[in-house]
Model the fold of this input.
Amino acid sequence: MAVAHVGGKEFEKQVLGSKIPVLVDFYTEWCPPCREMAPILEKLEAEMKGKVKIVKVDIEEERELAENYEVENIPTFIIFKGGKEISRDRGMHPRELMKMWLEQVV
Done:
């Protein structure tokens, strides 16, 4: 199952309106670390289904969202819970570290 891409009103619904925590991956297609993180995020999405939702936001297509959340480096990962940002990180990480980080918010 592929990680969903969101933007605009979908961001409000899928992220800010979610009943479970959401990890948002702010990325671009041309970013090598972003591409390397993609399969890791897809595996985590499948492993943690129902506990955490993972979505992607392309910062080139959704510049306003990137600016609103002050995304300066990619990939940037922000965890939202109850419609609010609760944690943020950036850069490449192994699957185990990402999973531990997500489990802290579940």
The first helix runs from residue 8 to 16. Helices lie at 8-16, 32-47, 63-68, 95-103. The chain is about 40% helix and 25% strand. The CA atoms of residues 18 and 82 lie 7 Å apart.
